[in-house]
Specification:
Helix content is 68%, strand content 0%.
Length: 180
């Protein structure tokens, strides 16, 4: 049981942790809903494209470009969701062989590197958006920065969700696989 008189784990700490958990839950729920909507929209567009091409013998020339742009958005939002659930692919051999204190250090370093990479990607994507500000897509004639903004949004969300879930990543007392 937690000692509520301890300043480090008192009621204010529990309230802040609860609000942070609610923020992460709300943000991930919104991103999941957006991800599902994007997936459903490009699924419907591809089916519509097939219908038009093979049944009506016409072509939806704009649908492919739209699907491509939506897929970039879907991948970047999905990447942020995977970061929130700590599901990115990683090699766990070192992590599993260390005692719990060493595991915490490895997880901390991985989180710090993830945030650093995401922030570098965010800055680079903002620079790319700036350079392509006046360019238009060839078919839809929408600004190209709207597609490149997906990279910035995904990188920013990944950094934010990694930071918000930082403390949740404390590794348990999992024993190392004896076959390693």
């Amino acid at each position: 049981m937690t000692d509520l008189s301890d300043p480090a784990t008192g009621p204010a700490q529990h309230d802040a942790t609860g609000r942070l958990g609610a923020l992460v839950s709300g943000l991930t729920a919104a991103l999941k809903a957006l991800s599902v909507a994007l997936l459903a929209s490009y699924f419907a567009l591809v089916l519509l494209q097939v219908l038009f091409r093979y049944v009506l013998n016409e072509s939806l020339f704009w649908a492919e470009e739209l699907v491509r742009g939506l897929m970039v958005w879907g991948v970047m939002i999905g990447s942020a969701l995977v970061a929130a659930s700590r599901g990115h692919i990683r090699v766990e051999m070192l992590e599993l062989m260390l005692p719990p204190g060493g595991r915490r250090v490895v997880v901390w370093i991985c989180d710090a590197l993830t945030i650093a990479f995401s922030l570098i990607l965010l800055v680079a994507s903002i620079q790319l958006m700036d350079r392509s500000w006046l360019q238009q897509s060839p078919i839809l004639e929408v600004p190209k920065w709207t597609v490149y903004m997906a990279v910035a949004a995904g990188a920013g969300l990944e950094a934010l969700l990694t930071l918000l879930t930082w403390r949740r990543a404390t590794p348990g007392n999992t024993k190392a696989d004896p076959t390693i």
